[in-house]
Amino acid sequence: MNLQKFNLKVNALGRFSMSPWKGAKYEIINKNIKNLPNWLALKKKQEGILINYLKKNFNKSNIKKYTVCDVGCNDGYFTEKLSNLGFSKVTGIEPRSDTILRGKKIRSLLKIKTKSQYIKGTIDNISKSKHYDIVVCCGVLHHTSSIAKSFNKLLSITKDTLVIEGEFLPKSILQTRKIAKHLQLKDLFYREKDGIYSISINKFETNFLDGSSISNGLVEIPTASKLIMLAKLKNFELKYYKENHFKNILNTTRCVLSFKRKKQKVFNFKELNEKEEKFFLSTAVPLKILKDINKNKMNYNKYSKFIRITNNLKYSFKDKMHFEFAKSYYFLGNNSSIAKKYLEKIIYKKNPDWFSCYRSFALMYLIDKKRNKIWKNFLKTSNPKFPVAKLKK
After folding, report:
1. What is the largest CA-CA distance in the chain?
2. Closest C-alpha among 272, 175, 267, 187 to residue 228
3. Which residues does residue 67 pair with via DSSP β-bridges, in sequence order?
4. For residue 180, how far is the Cα from the chain centroid?
5. DSSP bridge partners of 136
6. By the 8 A CB rule, do 92 and 70 touch?
7. Which of 124, 167, 175, 243 could disulfide-pair with 142, CB 3.0 to 4.6 Å?
8. Closest C-alpha among 128, 81, 109, 80 to residue 13
9. Which pTM does this prediction carry?
10. ∠ at Cα 181 (176, 183), nearest 5°?
11. What is the pLDDT of residues 354-378, one digit of tens each?
12. Domain parsing of the chain, residue ranges
């Protein structure tokens, strides 16, 4: 086949802006057009990062045993490259049947032997029974309407490692003070964890191009930290992160992230709650310090050992101080009767501080042995999430 006839057949198949196929005799290279994004340069750089990561982190014996799934594989250009690494089995999943067919035809024209299996499907309809050692998903998630839904599905079919490549909001955007100010990171999770959070934007996208959304509507573009947060919830740990900024007409930020399934839980929310309640119930501040705080009101910072408690006093100062005095008299002063008097100032008050109130019920359960069942019921009603079973310990 001469070059002119070859070009005619290739042109009839559609565009190859993101897959520079190359055979023994001919190759397909779309030249970069001025004022348009150089997708080939972008894909080549990201592809190199992915291939190098896989080679570095999986030895030859593992590669021979491992199965790989390339989700959103387009015409199979990168899927075939994965097959060339020697994996046991490589499967490409692509929602557009005509795109799969285009890949088949171009490989036939270039006399490239197909080494991978191709299945028509979307992220949503991948069978739950299908599981792969390694799942790769390149340039796909930012064309979906729900990052959480799509990413969680990818995690669910991953036995060992999930590798994501795609467009994300730059990490620097999270450093904007205005955003952090409005996030209200008050949840107990942020008391001891790394403080990670994320943001997303939505935009309209049509399905007219094969490199875009499969349906007309909204797509979501998040910061990469959203994937890290979702992965933690599903017991996956971030093992690799690389952010590249491509200065072109789209001003694109692309990231490569790798997540590995953990054998043990990354963290346990129940244990987190138990640890929080244990701290605030059993940590007693000496009476001398409490009396000083009560007298000077805002003089908290010099007591660094009790900073978590003293910082908390600014919310309902009077109720919280009564609770702290009760703990101090009970645990340090061995005086149950005075401790009870301070607790009664909270539990019989109209509209008391909720935290001080249910913790007062917990302390009354420990102090008032004769009526501990009553206090236990009050506690369970006031805060059903309180770890009552841990109270005696």
Report:
1. 100
2. 267
3. 89
4. 18
5. 70, 163
6. yes
7. 167
8. 109
9. 0.86
10. 100
11. 999 999 999 999 999 999 999 999 9
12. 3-261, 269-390
